Amino acid sequence: FNHIKLTQSNMENNDIKNNFSEQILHLIQTIKQSDIEIRSRAISRIDKLYKADYLNDEEKHLFAEALWSKLDSESQLPEDKYRYKWAFLSFPEPEPGKAKQKLLEFLLSQQSIDPINTNYFQDWLGSTKKPAMDHGAGVDWSSEDVRCLLDKILNWWNQHRDQTLANLESPHPQLKDRISPVVSKLIEVVSYIVLPRLGNNNDQVKEGIKNLIQDLDNAGFHVITAMPMTLFILPDDFDQVSQRMREALTSISIDEIQEADLSLFYWLAYSCNHYIPKPPPDLLNILVNRVVTRRQPGLRTALGWLSNILKEIPEQLNDKQLDSLSLALKYLLKESDLPTLFEFEMELSTKSLIATIDRPEYQKICSQLAFRLHKLLLQQGKEIPEILTQWKNFSENSVLPEVRKVWQ
User: Fold this and answer.
1) pLDDT at position 349, please?
2) 349-386 burial string, b = 16+ CB within 10 Å, else e?
3) 162, 198 Cβ separation under 8 angstroms
4) Which residues are bridge partners to 78 per DSSP?
5) What angle do CA 112, 126, 207 make, to 5 degrees?
């Protein structure tokens, strides 16, 4: 059921809504009366219908009532086997704001962190308001809240630093595999929760963060996500951060490129409100040029993040960069096309820029980029390039439903 994608395109059709009424009431009763395994599956199913707006007001009320009829003893949030605790911020509630209140109480009440429990970090990340992409959703933690979180992180690191680094250098891969996801989440928490909200702090705090990032960098972790965010507390490091970003954006490591693209988006987003200085213009040019030249690795992630920039912070792209994206889409229309049987067989002995197995995903991403570029140019009253009209026609007649839905 998790693979089914429902849309709101038919939500005005009451006949379609009524077709689900019996199943919705059955799922609500299941949530209220069943054990945690069956309850959790029922929540997953009705969540799909709720997000697509197939529930009426009465059904939403009953869903909220059933959801909160059984609570987790530790967090006092709805009992569920599969979801992170922050997920309940987007579910209906019997009392507005109750999920947010319980989640804050739970996360802030922890006296110390247990990073091996990655759910703890994930609940912080999932619940936190982020720039541009969340449109006001999530929690905007106070500087006192994040200072307490930072103290827990630094205390844990000071106590376990030597053992953690030893595990990372161990010849036994299971030790590194166990600690690596934990450290990656820790870097994300410091980058996207702590640093943007820490405010002015003493040199000891700044030094603690700098040492933590340096230790993880020396241990071989990708800390590029944290680099632009350090400008919140270390603005004099602008040139050093910019150079590290250039190196990461032009890397041949797909992991490093993905981290750099993500990091550049957040740097651009935070700079919109002048929280940190704007990145040098050449960094965004590097991202755009990777799409224009269809350079691998990292073409797919570059397309995705440029699409996000067009949607959330389009003012960061200048006219020349917008023209470059249109040019790139001209070539990608052909290169992402699904091959005929003959072409597919020939590809076994010829090199293709985009592997056949990846082309459906590329078509969806490119169509999304074309759609958002088309929408932006319309809003600006500018001429629409012919290639965007071609992408529209191609998408609307695609054999792939995920591509057709982009322009609906």
Assistant:
1) 47
2) eeeeebeeeebbbbbbbbbbbbbbbbebbeeeeeeebe
3) no
4) 71
5) 50
- Count CB neighbours of 107 within 10 A: 19
CA distances from 139 to 151, 346, 361 (A): 20, 53, 32
| Phi and psi torsions of 128, nearest 5° | -85, 135
Dump pLDDT digits (tens) for 34-77.
999 999 999 999 998 898 888 999 999 999 999 999 999 999 99
The CA distance from 314 to 380, in Å, is 11
Q: Give the C-alpha separation, 194 to 283, whole Å.
A: 24
Angstrom distance (rounded) from CA 128 to CA 314: 23
- Torsion, Cα 237 238 243 246, to 10 degrees, reads 140
The pTM is what?
0.88
Q: Does residue 299 contact residue 258 with C-beta atoms inside 8 Å?
A: no
Q: What is the DSSP string of 72-96?
A: -TTT-SBP-SSS-GGGGGGS--SST
Looking at this protein, which amino acid is placed at residue 27?
Answer: L
Check residue 52 and give its pLDDT: 84
Residues in a beta bridge with 232: none
Q: What is the pLDDT of residues 283-316, one digit of tens each?
A: 999 999 999 999 999 999 999 999 999 999 999 9
Per-residue pLDDT tens digits for 129-145: 887 665 556 888 999 99
pLDDT-based confidence at residue 346 (cuts at 50, 70, 90): low
d(CA 64, CA 142): 29
Measured in degrees and rounded to the nearest 5, phi and psi for residue 132 equal 70, -55
Question: What's the Cα-to-Cα distance from 90 to each of 47, 95, 98, 401, rounded to whole Å?
Answer: 10, 13, 11, 27
Per the listing, tokens 């990145």 go with 279
> Using N-to-C axis directions, what is the helix angle for 21-33 and 57-67, rounded to 10°?
20
Residue with tokens 């967090």: 75
| CA–CA gap between residue 189 and residue 182 (Å, rounded) | 11
Q: In angstroms, rounded to a whole number, what is the distance separating the alpha carbons of residues 156 and 161?
A: 8
* Residue among 180, 169, 219 nearest 211 (CA): 219
